[in-house]
């Protein structure tokens, strides 16, 4: 009989220690500074690249370490939990898993050309899917890629595209066959990995609630020429290729949310031990203890779901329900821990120097992106419970 093993392997534990050691060089003041000035955390990105961590999921033949989503989840959780939160995690998220469509569907020439610079941290990339007029209904996106001989010409608009201010490349989904000429709305979309040529792409930063160090942008694409060699896989099958990467991305976002929640819980707990009011530490009151204990339990439970989903993915077992549940539970548990951390600090929780207000602002991101709670609940209702599709 096979036992269920909940422990990280020795290798995974050593990975966590090594990543944690790098993160320790970037303390709270560093992240608070980036939250204030909005500068991309280049030094942090470079430090992880220097020790080879950015290529964790890229095959060894193309400059990476060829590890699984489980190892990537350990790494991303560690980064967020160090206090780097989503400022740190989102700065490298795209390097870690973003080029999976190239790994799975790219040809040999593309893999040789596209993967090593991302694994080495020499290039940055962004992922351009969301559009202002389509929202979560990806099949309705309107950006067009028209074939002209040996190239495509892309025109359209994207929104919320993270790291586009610093990216050299973009992975972009565009329509190559008009919606009314496609057999299904999800057909006729194609995927390209190409240079973000700013002569043809205007990138306009969105002023947003949190994670100022990692930009999110509107993109206006006007006549961007893309050589046919930059199309990933077959024309018209881009949606299918993107779908393949959705589950592992949800697993990683879940791991990041748990890391952030743990950072908040750590700060709240240590504050509760030190702050004395009415002649005793506030943490001696059950009114302070119980919400913190609840947060710990919810983060632990969500973490089990994250690693169950990661294990399923790495073992080739369908992981849609677990990956969606993991992202949802982790995002909500992370958010609750951040909110509880502020309330534990009382007024000080509202001051930037105690860091938890920054965490709370960042904890909204995994709730919204890459998919909202409502759409996850719709997925579980339909695909797991067999209820009629509601949208
Ligand atoms: C900080 C940040 C970074 C991001 N980075 C990127 C990125 O790098 N690349 C990228 O492509 N995108 C990115 N996104 C976009 C993100 O993935 C989308 O915002 C998200 O998918 C939601 O889409 P929307 O904002 O268009 O919401 P909408 O589709 O407009 O939905 C609005 C609300 O209505 C609800 N809703 C819609 N339809 C239904 C229904 N049928 N039933 C119930 N509720 C429904 C939704 O759940 C949501 O709450 C980012 C977003 C943020 C906030």
Number of beta strands: 10
The H-and-E topology, N to C, reads as: HHHHHHEEEEEEEEHEEHHHHH
Summarize the amount of helix as a percent range.
Answer: 40-55%
**Rounded radius of gyration (Å):** 21 Å
Mean pLDDT: 97
Class of secondary structure makeup = alpha+beta
Measured distance between first and last alpha carbons: 43 Å
Question: Count of helical segments?
Answer: 12
Largest sheet: 4 strands, mixed
Word description of this protein:
The chain has 391 residues and is of the alpha+beta class. Helices cover 50% and strands 15% of the residues. It is built from twelve helices and ten strands. It has helices spanning 10-23, 28-37, 42-50, 69-98, 100-105, 108-119, 238-274, 286-314, 320-345, 356-363, 365-368, 373-384, and strands at residues 125-128, 144-148, 151-162, 169-175, 189-195, 201-205, 216-227, 231-232, 276-277, 280-281. The strands form three sheets. It has a four-stranded mixed beta sheet with strand order 1-4-5-8. A four-stranded antiparallel beta sheet has the order 2-3-7-6, with no helix packed on it. Helix 4 crosses helix 7 (238-274). Flavin-adenine dinucleotide (FAD) binds next to strand 1, strand 3, helix 11 and helix 12.
Question: Which terms summarize this structure?
Answer:
single chain, alpha+beta, four-stranded mixed beta sheet, 12 helices, 15% strand, binds flavin-adenine dinucleotide
């Amino acid at each position: 009989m096979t036992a269920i093993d909940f422990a990280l392997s020795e290798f995974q534990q050593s990975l966590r220690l090594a990543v944690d050691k790098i993160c320790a060089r970037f303390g709270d003041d560093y992240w608070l500074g980036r939250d204030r000035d909005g500068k991309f955390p280049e030094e942090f990105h470079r430090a992880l690249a220097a020790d080879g961590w950015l290529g964790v999921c890229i095959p060894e033949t193309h400059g990476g370490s060829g590890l699984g989503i489980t190892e990537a989840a350990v790494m991303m959780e560690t980064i967020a939990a160090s206090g780097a939160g989503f400022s740190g995690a989102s700065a490298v998220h795209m390097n870690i898993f973003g080029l999976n469509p190239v790994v799975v569907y790219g040809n040999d020439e593309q893999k040789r050309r596209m993967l090593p610079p991302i694994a080495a941290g020499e290039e940055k990339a962004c992922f351009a899917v969301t559009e202002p007029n389509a929202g979560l209904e990806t099949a309705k996106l309107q950006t067009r890629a028209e074939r002209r001989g040996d190239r495509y010409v892309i025109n359209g608009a994207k929104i919320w595209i993270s790291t586009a201010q610093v990216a050299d490349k973009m992975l972009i989904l565009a329509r190559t066959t008009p919606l009314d000429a496609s057999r299904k709305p999800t057909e006729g979309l194609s995927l390209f990995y190409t240079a973000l040529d700013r002569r043809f792409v205007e990138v306009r930063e969105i002023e947003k609630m949190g994670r100022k160090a990692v930009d999110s942008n509107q993109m206006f694409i006007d006549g961007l020429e893309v050589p046919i060699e930059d199309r990933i896989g077959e024309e018209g099958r881009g949606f299918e290729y993107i779908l393949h990467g959705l589950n592992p991305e949800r697993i990683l976002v879940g791991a990041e949310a748990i890391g952030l929640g743990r950072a908040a819980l750590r700060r709240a707990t240590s504050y509760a031990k030190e702050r004395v009011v009415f002649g005793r530490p506030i943490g001696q009151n059950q009114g302070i203890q119980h919400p913190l204990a609840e947060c710990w339990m919810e983060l632990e439970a969500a973490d089990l779901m994250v690693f169950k989903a990661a294990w399923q993915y790495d073992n080739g077992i369908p992981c849609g329900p677990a990956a969606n549940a993991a992202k949802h539970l982790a995002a909500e548990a992370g958010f609750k821990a951040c909110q509880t951390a502020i309330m534990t600090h009382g007024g000080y929780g509202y001051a930037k120097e105690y860091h938890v207000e920054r965490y709370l602002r960042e904890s909204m991101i995994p709730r919204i992106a890459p998919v909202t709670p409502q759409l996850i609940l719709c997925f579980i209702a339909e695909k797991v419970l067999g209820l009629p599709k509601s949208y």
